[in-house]
UniProtKB/TrEMBL annotation:
Residues annotated as domain CobQ/CobB/MinD/ParA nucleotide binding: 12-226
GO molecular function, one term: ATP hydrolysis activity
Annotated Pfam families: CbiA
Protein name, UniProt field: MinD/ParA family protein
Keyword ATP-binding tagged: yes
The entry's keywords: ATP-binding, Nucleotide-binding
Keyword Zinc-finger found: no
Any one GO cellular component localisation term in the record: cytoplasmic side of plasma membrane
Amino acid sequence: MMWNSVRKVRIVAVASGKGGVGKTNCSVNLAVALARLGKATMLVDADIGLANANILLGLNAPLTVGDVLARQCGLSDIIIEGPAGLKIVPGHNGSGVTAHLDRSDRRRLADVFRPYASTLDYLVLDTGTGIAPEALRLTAMSDLVTIVLSGEPTAFMDAYTLTKVLALDHGITSLAVVTNMVDDEGRGRELFRHFRDVVSRFLPTDLLYLGSVPNDDHVRKAVLRKQCCIEAFPRSQAAQAFGLIAHALAELDPKPRESGDRFFGMEALHGAR
Ligand SMILES: Nc1ncnc2c1ncn2[C@@H]1O[C@H](COP(=O)(O)OP(=O)(O)OP(=O)(O)O)[C@@H](O)[C@H]1O
Ligand SMILES: [Mg+2]
């Protein structure tokens, strides 16, 4: 009961059906943009297969979530500071320690993250790609799932499948969408509308448009410089788009949900609310 009253943070999971559509770039830039808006923000690299959010920012991560799970250290020991005071939780890479979280692992994670529930405004989860059950379980532990959708036909179908599995298996019927690597804002909005039309025909899901990020070489150049785009090229179209999306998200002010409580192991308390 106590925890519910003190949970301030909103958990925003960034997900996609298909790999390589720009989840990590969106997560990182969005998290930095939120931090710049003065929101206390934490970026959690929850990509199970290939953790790289910190690499994208040129930051070394001597310790990761894997060390926390192995009880080698606490969460505060692994957090690294990014631009604008952003807190970054580096993900475990490779050997799959986080690929199969058992019950005690999940309890450990809930315990170490819980103190941050009352101090943060946003926790951005860069999640693994696709509909693997373990990746989805984490994606579903959020207040708002944001799907990154690119214009490729396969990305469209895979985003549809993800939307379907989130609705049918996880009861998540309200999602945000960011279109990425589109020609311009108009095209991005068009892509979103097309996606919403298809989804509304077959699924009970409401989709909310958060914004579009253009296909912009500055994103790739920033990656090569090991900086996020909005730091390296603040005037670029992509950087401005990320800023607008952060504004839209803050404006939306997503409500805390039971699914987000689960991230902190608070779900048992939900019924008492
Ligand atoms: N708006 C954009 N304009 C140009 N290039 C982009 C844009 N967004 C992402 N990219 C490029 O697309 C590639 C994939 O991006 P990113 O790593 O963010 O995708 P991802 O969905 O996290 O991939 P994975 O599934 O491997 O985790 C990167 O090379 C990145 O530079
Ligand atoms: Mg990624």
